[in-house]
Amino acid sequence: SPGVEIQERIVRDGVDIEMYAPGAAKPVRAAFVVLVRNSELLGMKQAMRQIEDRFNSKFNYPYVFLNDVPFTDDFVAETTAMTRANVSYGVIPTEHWSYPAWINQTHALECRQSMEQQGVFYALSESYRHMCRFNSGFFFRHPLLSDIEYYWRIEPDVEYSCDIDYDPFLFMSRRGIKYGYTIALHEYPETIPTLWATVKNLIASRPGFVRHANGMAWLSEDGGDTYNGCHFWSNFEIGSLDFFRSKEYLAYFDYLDKAGGFFYERWGDAPVHAIAAALLLKKEEVHWFEDIGYYHNPWTNCPQSPESRLRCHCDPEKSAIHHYWASCTQSWLALPSSNSSQSAKG
Ligand code: GDP
Ligand code: MN
User: Fold this and answer.
1) What's the topology of domain 1-92+138-175?
2) Ligand 1 contacts CB of residue 37 (under 6 A)
3) Would the CB of 191 count as within 6 Å of ligand 1?
4) 21, 167, 316, 329: most buried, per Cβ within 10 A?
5) Active-site residue 237, yes or no?
6) Which CATH class is domain 181-346?
């Protein structure tokens, strides 16, 4: 693009990638998006240090920090000092982090208590449910992201274990990729007892909602009757905000929100995002970043190629890809291409 100072070009998987000078206007409007608590400052600095050293000191993408309460002066000062990039801090609007009018809060409390009896993680937590609902339906509407096309989600305490020498945002935008992940897992069924029934009702009530027939085979082993729990682990995501802002996604989120499962159960943003991605995007619009070394307790993604030993500090043997609980990556890769499903549908 005119006006962008390009320092060098590299080729990755046949795609010509531009590396540009810090501070240069970027060909892709992109940002790191971080929902985080003030109490997680140290873990946040750890994650930022790695992101900066492994990637962003060369690319200089801005950070957008979001919180349900104002960030403290210390949080702002210490995270701003981690990077030369632009950093902004936003408070989440109350209506994006509170009970909608149609939720029966007494019933929600009873549901949390009964999930606690079943030993579900975060069963009693109200804030966890607001967090999952915010990440499912609202983060992409925050005013600080209104000019942004692509986001990269970061959490405190994660690790980035490989040098990233190309621009994943540019890579995605050049190839028309809408959603990128590193680890794909099965969900705990106790957190989402009625999620799939709700999705099936939505599909039945909206003919044409499913635009990617192959994606159903990734979500279900029995032709759509039951959900196998496959999802992309959403603490790492690089994605298109326009996908989440699409009228199909917004209608899907509204339908789920009205059903109440964010509060009466504990629907996670990971299965919510993944079900939409599988049903609405083509196989080629979803990308596994095999080459990005990543750790969030307790799972790792670590590149397998011998060459990556020179740019990584992770153990390829420990990569989630070897574990049956993370076999949803292999099953995504095994899907037929969407071009073949298009022609099958006629
Ligand atoms: P887990 O990864 O599912 O165990 O959940 P986390 O505790 O890591 O929460 C997911 C993300 O949301 C992290 O980036 C947290 O910092 C953030 N988060 C969770 N709860 C809250 C909250 O109540 N307020 C804010 N501001 N951020 C939260
Ligand atoms: Mn986390």
Assistant:
1) Spore Coat Polysaccharide Biosynthesis Protein SpsA; Chain A (3.90.550)
2) yes
3) no
4) 167
5) yes
6) alpha beta
